[in-house]
Specification:
alpha+beta; 25% strand; 5 helices; elongated; four-stranded antiparallel β-sheet; 59% helix; two-stranded antiparallel sheet
């Protein structure tokens, strides 16, 4: 269960309402109604509704819609919410693992750094220092450590 409070709750409710108003599919509207009821009732979103909430939050953040409509405060509220959701937790863990690996290069002599475009919105960062080479993939799914070679 994920708890929404304050501005997180207000912005999420507004986004659910905006999406509901735009869709024609009655089945999808029903899922949005259930999600809205959970948020509105006590701010506690049940596990079965988390995926839908995460999908709405992700699209709203990626599109820039939240910042455009609610400003930086609304965007920050939704980012706080996103970091509580499974995708946000996974991204934070992945970024932490990459940061930990990169910190292992601290104090070593930098030999090379290369950034390669792999595809649309996807990159590979290679850092070599002190005889160790790290390759990091960067894309919409976040930053992931691809390889470590000594």
């Amino acid at each position: 269960m994920t708890a929404l409070r304050g501005e997180e709750r207000e912005v999420a409710l507004a986004e659910v309402d905006a999406v509901r108003a735009a869709v024609q599919d009655d089945g999808y509207r029903g899922r949005l109604d259930a999600l809205r009821a959970s948020i509105e009732d006590d701010g506690a979103v049940e596990p079965g509704e988390i995926a839908e909430l995460e999908r709405l939050v992700t699209i709203a953040l990626q599109s820039g819609r939240i910042r455009a409509l609610y400003g930086p405060g609304g965007e920050q509220a939704l980012l706080r919410l996103y970091r509580k959701l499974p995708g946000g937790v996974e991204l934070a863990q992945s970024a932490s693992a990459v940061g930990e690996a990169l910190s292992g290069l601290q104090g070593r002599t930098l030999e090379s750094v290369a950034l390669t475009a792999v595809g649309p919105g996807a990159f590979s960062l290679t850092v070599a220092a002190g005889g160790v080479q790290l390759k990091v993939h960067l894309d919409r799914q976040g930053a992931r450590l691809a390889s470590v070679e000594a």
